[in-house]
Amino acid sequence: MAMENSPLTTHVLDTASGLPARGLCLRLSRLENLGQQWMELKTSYTNLDGRCPGLLTPGQMKPGTYKLSFNTEHYWKERGQESFYPYVEVVFTIAKETQKFHVPLLLSPWSYTTYRGS
Hints:
Elements: E1 8-14, E2 19-20, E3 25-32, E4 37-45, E5 51-56, E6 64-70, H1 72-78, E7 88-94, E8 101-107, E9 112-114
Parallel strand pairs: 1-8
Antiparallel strand pairs: 1-2, 1-5, 3-4, 3-6, 6-7, 8-9
């Protein structure tokens, strides 16, 4: 799926190296009303540019609470680096399924920042 057609994308930058975070495993989940359980929708990896386009197709997008879980411990261990956060979870709400959502993550072994991108 082309990035411009995907309603939900992410981009991870390794701020320690100043490069895209290649090969970072992430999982997308949605909070289900019955039982308040997280339902995993997709497992994926960032590409060579640190991007993960196509997390949801337009038909899969619906209003609700979503979570992107990034396996940062494995990412840093592969690079021989200790880290403080074993994983990063970004929880966000989608109110209108017709909008596009971009969730960037700026990552270092000791900190992270996220925001709603465009």
